[in-house]
Amino acid sequence: MTIEYDEKGKFYTDVISKVAVPATMQTSSHLIRGFVHVRRGERIKDELEHDELFLAVTNASITGSDGKVQFEAPFIAVRRAQIIWIMPDEEAVREEDKA
Hints:
This protein is mainly beta. The protein has helices at about 45-50, 90-99; strands spanning about 5, 10-15, 20-25, 30-40, 55-65, 70-80, 85-90.
């Protein structure tokens, strides 16, 4: 990791700081709930517009078309081209604020 400073003391690093946002997404065959990692100050939509092929999802729960949870994983990489829709999980955000 490198850290560079400018004349005003502001520092720059090659590490990208991200925030975990609870979200629900639909692929052609599965519903995925978990945390999408978004750069600070950006939205999920902004994260989807980056050039990477995959979107990182942590604490993922993958539900099949029958409504049953098929898999749970601490990390999955979802191919962005397979995402039909995605939305922030407002209920999970509200419950975190209560804690």
